[in-house]
Amino acid sequence: MDGFNLRYLTLALALSTGLDTALAATSNEFVDKAAAGGIAEIEASRLALEKSQAADVKAFANMMISDHSKANDELAAIAKKNAIDVPNSTTLVKQAKEKILDLRDESFDAAYANNQVKAHEQAIELFKKQADTVTDDKTPGAMELKGFAQDMLPGLEKHLEMAKKLQAAHPM
C-alpha cells in the first residue's frame, strides 16, 4: 500500500477507534480528517449491518450510512470548488471494512456502540474547532468549511446522543 492510502487508513482508523488525533489547523487538514472519519463511519456501519442481529444497531447503522454519505458528498463538493484534495477512498474502504471492529460476533454490538460514541465525540471536537476558526482565515474554502462544520454540528451531536443510548442498550 502506498503512503498516501496508508495516511488515510490511519486517519480513518484513529477517528473510528477513539485514538487521540490532532485537530485541524488548515482547511486541507480538516477536509482530510472529516472525509476519512466519514468514510470510517460508513464502513463501520456497513460492517454493523453485516454482523449485528439487533434491530436498533441496524437502524442506527443505516442512519450513519445515509447521513455520513450526504455529509461526505457535501464536503467533497466544497473541497472541489476550492481546489482542496479529498482523500481517495478506494483502498481505504476495503481496508477499513477488513480492520474496523474486527471482533467476535457476541461482543460486536457493544463494541460498535462504544466505537460510535468515541468517534462522534472526536468528530464533534474536530467540527467545533473548524466552526470556531477565525473569520479572517484566507485559506481557500475556509469560510465555506466553517459554515459546513457549523451546519453539521447539530447532526453530529444528535448522533452522539443516539450512540450513547445504543451504548446503554448494549453494554459490554
Task: Describe what this molecule looks like in 3D.
The chain is elongated, with a radius of gyration of 16 Å. By secondary structure, the chain is an all-alpha fold. The protein has helices at residues 3-17, 27-51, 55-81, 90-99, 105-131, 142-169. The model is unreliable at 1-24 (pLDDT under 50). Helix 2 packs antiparallel against helix 3 (55-81), helix 2 packs across helix 4 and helix 3 runs antiparallel to helix 6 (142-169). The chain contains six helices and no strands.
User: What string gives the helices and strands in order?
Assistant: HHHHHH
What share of the residues does DSSP label as strand, in percent?
under 5%
What's the N-to-C terminus distance? Answer: 34 Å
* Sheet having the most strands: none
* Morphology: elongated
Radius of gyration: 16 Å
Tell me the helix content: over 70%
| Low-pLDDT segments, ≥5 res | 1-24
Number of helices: 6
Mean pLDDT: 79
Q: Tell how many strands the DSSP assignment holds.
A: 0
> Which class of secondary structure composition applies to the elements?
mainly alpha
SSE topology sketch:
Blueprint: H1 3-17, H2 27-51, H3 55-81, H4 90-99, H5 105-131, H6 142-169
Helix pairs in contact: 1-2, 1-4, 2-3, 2-4, 2-5, 3-6, 5-6
